[in-house]
TrEMBL record:
Membrane topology reported for the UniProt record: Multi-pass membrane protein
TM segment ranges: 36-56, 140-160, 180-199, 261-283, 303-324
A GO CC term attached to the entry: nucleus
DNA-binding segment(s): 86-129
Keywords for the protein's UniProt record, in alphabetical order: DNA-binding, Endoplasmic reticulum, Homeobox, Lipid biosynthesis, Lipid metabolism, Membrane, Nucleus, Transferase, Transmembrane, Transmembrane helix
Protein name from the UniProt record: Ceramide synthase 5
Catalysed transformations (reactions): sphinganine + octadecanoyl-CoA = N-(octadecanoyl)-sphinganine + CoA + H(+)
InterPro entries recorded: HD, Homeodomain-like_sf, Lag1/Lac1-like, TLC-dom
GO molecular function, a single term: DNA binding
Record's subcellular location: Endoplasmic reticulum membrane; Nucleus
Species of the source: Oreochromis niloticus (Nile tilapia)
Main location: endoplasmic reticulum
Gene: CERS5
Length: 371
């Protein structure tokens, strides 16, 4: 175990040349450097955030949903049938014509009736509009609060106005209480999302979003451990800037305020493009790739960090293209269509998806979170 730990915390990977872990162990009085052990604080905080979410959705979001006439309705349920249930759970949720014909003969039902049973059964597993509204309201509240806090904190930080301050004196940069609280709260929130995935209604994008949350947790933890928290705080703020607008658009959609939904989606799209395609590469990537090279110089974890940030930029471009397709349709047709077949992953993190027509004109959920 000691050998494995020594290999993982190899100084030549994590730290610039001529810097050792011992150099960071005894900072000046009143100065604290980041340590991996600090991140364990995020775990109990994540549990606390999860509890707060449950209370928020029950006592705040749910009454708001009811006031907007979004009730916890129960859709039509499929009649109990052991044969079809076994096929649904073990073989396929969307039987093809061959399966439909076989089941029709076995049960002496019309094919149309078998199709209807499967449609009703699929609908049972979909989260209700009330549930989705409460979830979006919680995320909207958190994203708005954390973005407000982060922006206010960065407004008073020198590295927001001159990103070279992210690298002056690196890695001997003190971890201030404001930066620590910002980082740990963001980390705890994404841990809480991972926890809640196992208690929420299972969606088709469960694995995708789990990997997304795990990657986000890993990136935040990685940047904290090697004391790239200053530039990391810029990355967090850039991504938080549009997330609350997305959740606001979802809430408007669930409440059937279509014009407000369309407007918010356009505003979200503009904010997304500006922050992810302009500010992020010009402000963040320029600093991590070129300013840090000139001030600190490259080393192994520096290369890894920049590769991950570049991969994120590639994803931004892909997501922006997919978002633009819906935004253009909204402008040309006057509303955001519900029949798009694209599944859009929005960062830092979230997922948008729309509805697609099945072969019989019925709207079928295509995975992810409905916009």
């Amino acid at each position: 175990m000691a050998a494995l730990s020594a290999w993982f915390w190899n100084e030549r990977f994590w730290l610039p040349h001529n810097v050792t872990w011992a150099d960071l162990e005894n900072p000046a009085p009143g100065v604290e450097y980041p340590k991996a052990g600090h991140l364990f604080t995020a775990l109990p905080l994540a549990l606390g955030i999860f509890v707060v979410r449950i209370l928020f959705e029950r006592f705040i979001a749910s009454p708001c949903a009811r006031s907007l006439h979004i009730h916890q309705g129960v859709g039509r349920r499929a009649q109990p049938n052991a044969v079809l249930e076994k096929v649904f759970t073990s073989i396929t949720k969307n039987p093809d014509s061959r399966h439909l014909d076989g089941l029709s003969k076995q049960l002496d039902w019309e094919v149309r009736k078998v199709q209807r049973w499967f449609r009703h059964r699929r609908n049972q597993d979909k989260p209700s509009t009330h549930t989705k509204f409460c979830e979006s309201m919680w995320r909207f509240t958190f994203y708005l609060c954390i973005f407000t806090y982060g922006f206010q904190f960065l407004w008073q930080s020198p590295w927001m106005w001159d990103t070279r301050h992210c690298w002056y004196g690196y890695p001997y940069q003190a971890m201030t209480s404001g930066l620590y609280h910002y980082y740990v709260t963001e980390l705890a929130f994404y841990w809480s999302l991972m926890f809640s995935q196992f208690t929420d209604i299972k969606r088709k994008d469960f694995l995708i979003m789990f990997i997304h949350h795990l990657a986000t947790v890993s990136l935040i933890s990685f940047s904290y451990v090697n004391n790239m928290a200053r530039v990391g705080s810029l990355v967090l703020c850039v991504h938080d800037a549009s997330d609350f607008l997305l959740e606001a658009a979802k809430m408007a959609n669930y409440a059937k305020y279509q014009r407000l939904c369309d407007f918010l989606f356009i505003v979200f799209s503009v904010a997304f493009f500006i922050t992810r395609l302009v500010i992020y590469p010009i402000w963040v990537l320029n600093s991590t790739m070129f300013e840090s090279w000139a001030i600190v110089g490259p080393y192994p974890s520096w290369w890894l960090f920049n590769v991950l940030l570049l991969v994120l930029q590639v994803l931004h471009i892909i997501w922006s293209y997919l978002i633009a397709r819906i935004a253009i349709k909204a402008i040309l047709r006057g509303k955001v269509g519900h029949k798009e077949s694209s599944i859009i992953w929005v960062l830092g993190c979230d997922a948008l998806s729309c509805w697609k027509e099945d072969g019989h004109g019925e709207q079928q959920y295509s995975g992810g979170l409905l916009l």
